Structure formats: structure tokens, C-alpha cells
């Protein structure tokens, strides 16, 4: 099987997780495990895609039970690729450029003010001035 071109990391992760679950459905007792994995939210599927993948897991298990391992494997790969193409990328948590600029401006304004000097103990009981470290 060739991997689809232009696939982002989220789609690649979803394809791998769905494919592993579906390929596991070929084994004895794998159908239940595949259902549990596909129902779990960390896979990144919404309800409709999870249902579609679960139906495919049942078909894969049935094909494997009939002895058609090649057909089960092909169905698993094909379904995983189709589901990965339909999945939506999650919202990016990276701050926008404008938010970063505002935050940096705030830091610069804060560092423009001279920091108060503090007297700290020095050798021989004397006290010396120490400026706070720059952040």
C-alpha cells in the first residue's frame, strides 16, 4: 500500500491508529478491541467517522473469519486512508502573530523601567547593591 501524498501529521496519526485497530480486528477477539479503540476520543474521530470505522472493523473481522485475510487487510488499509482524509485537523493552539507581538511589547515595556536596587550581604558583613536579573 502506498501512503497518500500531502498528508499532514494529524491525518497521518489518525490513519495509523485506525489502521492498527482495523488490522487488529482480524484476530480472534480483535473485533471488541477495535470497537473500544475506535470509540476512544484520543483517536481523533467524530461520531460519524467512528461509526464508519467500527462498521469496517466488523467487516474486517467477518472477512478474516471466512479466511480472506488479504481482503480483510486491503479493506483495513482502504478504510483507514478514507477516514484519515475525512478527518478535520484540530484547532491550532499556537498564538497568532498579533498576540505574540502584543506579548513581546508588554515584556519590552516592563524591562524599560529601571529595576530597584537591592542591598544584599557581601563579604565581611558589608552590604552591596545588586540589580535584579533581567528576565
Automatic annotation (TrEMBL):
Region (Disordered): 81-135
Biased amino acid composition, Basic and acidic residues: 91-116
Superkingdom of source: Bacteria
Biased composition (Basic residues): 125-135
Protein known as: Uncharacterized protein
Protein source organism: Haloactinospora alba
